[in-house]
Predict the structure.
Amino acid sequence: MQPKPLALKVLDILSILLLGVSAYLALVFAPTEVVMGDVQRVFYFHIGTAWTALLGFILAAVFSVVYLVRKDLKWDRLQVAAVEVSLVFFFITIVLGSIWARPAWNTWWTWDPRLTTAAITELIYIAYFMLRQGIDDPERRARFGAVYALVGGISAPITFFAIRLFRTIHPVVIGGSNVNAEGDFSMTADMRLAFFFALFTFTVIFIDLFWNRIRLGDLQEKVEQLKLKVSM
Amino acid sequence: MLFQETTPDTSGYMIAGYAIAFIVMALYVISLILRSRNLNQDMATLKDVESSAVQIHAPSPSRTGKKPPKSATKKGRKK
């Protein structure tokens, strides 16, 4: 494997530092919300991971289109990297949301439109990897994966707009309000700082993990080619 | 939480949430490192196999048009 570029090494270290600062801002710097208490602090990482995950799913759909047009496997590797990192982040989003819901809604899970669309999105992308595992031919796997990721990409905006389109108890903290929401709150200036810093942090971490995953995909490709060469 | 007078102690949920978030991220990073290490090992093994295959299938001197060197024992027998 080629040695890690200096920029990626710097990004690795920066990601760790930013994660530490973001955790400090969320856990110590931001004031405690009066009604919900400390559990409200999971909101910063919940939104941070959700934002990057949904962005990653949309990116994967864009890479799918580019692959289908150009038929270059490089775009397939980018798509896989975007989906994999987003899947991990979205899992964290769902778990944090569930933990917040227990004291706020008095339940770990409810089939609210936002929670349902989020669960469906996560399952769609788990199935994406299962589909890929079942196809041996790389070209065919890439083509099927691209079409699937393109269609699956629709679930990302649906999940995002679910709380704005449907009657739901999920709070709308950014860009609007929800009269039916339970556990709604308004942010103070310090909360806003912790929030935007978390968004920035998770964007940087996403880029870092995405880059590392692309390199892993490239290495996988080289090993596959060498296997073919040796077996002939 | 209606008509509550004091802020509830929900720090346990917060700790659980952050612990899970950090553990999941750490596990993913570890999985990336392990997969990368395994692929590098595969790569090294395959390169070894490839180089040994090249040595086995290397053209013999008779095919290249050169005469094979006579062995000392044959030479001795002729004499």
